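Request: How about a record?
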Amino acid sequence: MTRSYPVFRAACIEFTREKGMLLLYGLSIGITGIIVPIVMQGIEASLTTAALLTAILLRPLLSDSLAGEREHRTLETLLSSPLNGKSIIWRKLQFCCLFAFSYFSITVFCSALTCFLVRGVTVLLPWQWLGIMGLAALNYGATCIVGVYASSTSGDMRVANSRVSWRAYLLSLLFVVCLGVVVSADTESALSVGAVCALIYLSVLSLYTAKIRRMKQPDFFKPGTIRKPERVHERRASSLQPKSQFGIVLTFEWKALMTLKSLLLSFGLLCFSPVALVCLLLYFTGTFDLNYAVILTVLLIPRVPSNLIAYSIGGEKVYKTGEALLSTPLRLRPVLLAKCTVPVLVTAVMLAVSFLLVWASTWLIPLIMPELAPIPGYSATQLILLFPVSILSSISMILIAAVLAVRLQTPRHGLYAASFLSFLFVLPVMAILYLAPDPLLWAIIYPVVLLLGDLICAMKISGNMTRPQVMSRL
């Protein structure tokens, strides 16, 4: 195991070299740990945001851990050295765990310090802090071991991302619920829920530890599910009928998306996340707050398009298929427009499903629990933030992620920036819901600003994008 220490050191060195990403991490910690506690006047929202944001930033690291090495043809070099495949996995796991726990701990410390300086009192009891940090260690340990194992058995980044996504989001949602119970509920409820969650995390750790131990050295050389670029473009070339170029690319991208079963499963879990969170918080705290559903929806669902567009465009660079695509009679603008349309459609469908699930819960819960007061439905402000704001913010992230995917060498870097931007887009939503004197007015102003920004960004891209420029980046 000691011989594999250079793997951990190389991961740390590569991490510290990305100065731009370190700046984004620092800004996100400052916003989550300082601005959010002041805006929300408490630490509860800061803890929830820190947990979700840690999972969002951790997921690309997990996907890239082994699948990235395989995709860039560097895993064979590692395995040809005296290093054992399992020792490489453990070192990658250590680095991901260190990042996740350090990021969450620093954010939580900043939140506690901010609340103490603003309010002059400690916001949580010592047993609550111990419970939160203990559950955080178990949660991120389980998430990292699941993610690294999924990455080690995936042939490329696209498959690894789809496999890691739903597992990481499911464990993160469980952790968010635990945080809400530990912070808001009594000692007995917190201990019981914490014990159940700890048992689940320990079971996950034991299961995947056994799976990794059973892996043999030849397993790491398996090609996995890497697509063959020539077959992909054979299908593209054969489908070039005398019809709309936009329709050709749109049909192909949609069919390709439908083949990613694990990714579609993660989309479905994201749709259930808002209703699951508000229902569980209702059960443990006795309050049904639709603002939490709105914030969680705006934070999570618009991130989907940035992931899709990053791998749709970045994948052309990784698989060396961009040149073949641009050598066809397809024009550049219809190709980009079609690639951006698919994520927007996915986002709209997910928003509709998530809204219907939460809306149905406002009708069903009073029937199941008659002792509760009638639960109000979505207000006009919340509906505006749910649909126009979410869709327009997703379009903004699509355009930004598309440009980054073309300019940067790997899709992973674009995903990091898109993850941070998804958090920035939700800050005005939180301010409108909790601080604005006239929430409806500001809820109308915000999508107008987003729409103007999207139009300006689209015109800039359309005016400056040429085929030679794209070819030079491939």
In short: The chain is about 80% helix and 0% strand. The radius of gyration is 23 Å. The CA atoms of residues 86 and 215 lie 7 Å apart. The first helix runs from residue 5 to 17.
